[in-house]
Amino acid sequence: MIQLTDVTLTFPDGDGRITAVDRARLLVPAGTVAALTGPSGSGKSSVLAVAAGLIRPDSGSVEVAGVDVAALSPKAATDFRRTRLGIVFQQSNLLPSLTATEQLCALHALGGRTSRASRTATRDRAAELLAAVGLADQADKRPHQLSGGQRQRVNIARALMNEPDALVVDEPTSALDHERGSAIIDLILELTATSGAATLLVTHDRTHLDRMDQVLVMQDGRLTAGSAELARQV
Question: Does residue 145 lie within any of the structural domains?
Fold first, then answer.
């Protein structure tokens, strides 16, 4: 579950402050996908950063999988993201020298030293996820050998390596054509349902909103529950 309650976030602006998020409320139950849409500069990315514990809000609570991430220390927030949260960035940000399998294993190894048995389990988990995203036959390929859609699939698989309780996804189809974008949305919906994670997805692509469990509309820092039809009017 991802739940924001009365979250307000401001940033310095000259002698004053500008409000990026104004008393936002949302609830994303486990196993569902909530699409967050709205005009550029409306505060969507700020909501995503708050939900991921990357930014501490001025006020309000941010509960992810039963943990108030807004109350965590910076180190504890980092540990939380590493172990219980999956983040899918707009750009895949894959390491050029690593294969698809190694991209997933490297993320899992960031926590420190691992035993041989643990390394074997990690590679098995990576193979399982690459198969789940349709890339079993691309496991030994490096980023330059993969298409844009395939790189984004690796990005999604990497976010699932820690078996997260929640996913935050930033514009996963922005660099893809409609067909590849639709395939990525299919994948996110399927993996959310099978993993039971709560998924908050920021998107400008309104063609897929009818398929989401809920649609949230952001405008001028204010967040409202809406519908696919309402979102298309904003």
Answer: no
Within a domain: 30: yes
Q: How many domains does the chain contain in total?
A: 1
Q: Among residues 87, 92, 93, which one has the least CA distance to residue 45?
A: 87
pLDDT digits (tens, 9 = 90+) for 163-220: 999 999 999 888 888 888 889 999 999 999 999 999 999 998 888 899 999 999 999 9
User: How much of the chain exceeds pLDDT 90, in percent?
Assistant: 74
Q: Which residue from 17, 21, 87, 5 is spatially nearest to 219, judged by alpha carbons? A: 21
165 secondary structure, DSSP code: S
Residue 156 in domain: no
Distance CA 22, CA 25 (A): 9
Whether this model's pTM surpasses 0.85: yes
Phi, psi of 172 (to 5 degrees): -70, -15
Tell me, yes or no, whether 113 lies in a domain.
Answer: no
Quote the CA–CA distance of 205 and 133 in Å, as a whole number: 21
